[in-house]
Amino acid sequence: MSASPSSRRLILTRSAALIGAASTGLLLPEIVRAQSGKVRVGFMLPYTGTFAQLGVAIENGFRMAINEQGGKLGGREIEYFKVDDESEPSKGIENASKLVQRDKVDVLVGTVHSGVQMGIQKVARDSGVLSLIPNAGVHAATRSLCAPNVFRTSFTNSQPTLALGQAMVAKGHKKAVWITWKYAAGDEAFEGFKESYTKAGGTIIKELGLPFPNVEFQALLTEIAALKPDAVACFFAGGGAAKFIRDYAAAGLKGKIPLYGSGFLTEGVLEAAGPAADGIITTMHYSDSLDTPRNKKFRLDYAKAFKAQPDVYAVQGYDTGLLLIQGANAVKGDLNNKPALYKAMEGATIDSPRGKWTMSKAHNPVQDMYLRVVENKENKVIGVAAKALADSGAGCKMA
Ligand code: PHB
């Protein structure tokens, strides 16, 4: 048990003052927590729906990082709590509150979907709980609504696509159609694409969209065939991405109109998409084929532990674990020592399978973006599309 003297005093004072309430059982969770001394880690992730696999990969990656440290954080045992957020924005606040109010987690790890993240962001800002974002790229989380207790280990939605436009124009594709799910992640990915593609001299001839998580792509693919662009660029992910890739080929577009995307399009879906994915070019802060000892060891260890191939989501979950470990070690497990905890996390360099990255002032990774092509069920790196790319952090008062 490693509660700091001040938090121990707080627990004792509260226990004494509310002894009556304790006898009713109302205070039990707090007392149990104080006695066990375990760090309470809450996963709020999608375990059902089109992003279910993403949630599992993130949790696997996180646990792997912790298990490499003997399963402890700053010397303390860990107790895990889980909520399936179903990628359902309307339940975001309620689900985050379950972990923070009911389960009294010290750290909330979540989530994947940008709309759901906005619910977590509100609860994190209101409660002050340490919030680690292992995927969702919604700009506001590390821009206008940034907060000292919120750290992202993944990307902002426009980061991968900011590296995409230039790469497409360099291949001679001057007229493009953009297609996505119409919600924050797709809209903000478009912002990055538009900026980079038009700056490089490309013209976006049409923006197409459908509501998340709809996968009825047929009418839109027919429209693309009629528009005859030089190339198509998109944001899709998870189960929906696998279907988009298959439908694109089935509509006869593969081989005729090259398909590009932010790299989520081809992450974790290459088995499900099959040969239809071959040749798709994407930009992303990770690639399966990165030829570094760090990445090779990570891939081998992950495959052994989980009998599955890791993807960018597994890497982001792993890096979330690495960041928390660095913070927890700096405060010897006393996560209540917030100034020192945040300072250590802000100054951390994460030795990630994606390559080393650092935290921006707004708490978002500064990282390289790779250009990749799908070959034989692998995202093969073919270049670096952007070096040490930082999000603008626009509107973040900490920055
Ligand atoms: C998001 O909603 O922010 C999101 C979801 C899935 C991804 C990337 C971003 O792969």
Automatic annotation (TrEMBL):
One Pfam family per UniProt: Peripla_BP_6
Annotated Leucine-binding protein domain residues: 38-376
Keyword Signal set for record: yes
Keyword field: Signal
Family: Belongs to the leucine-binding protein family.
Protein name: ABC transporter substrate-binding protein
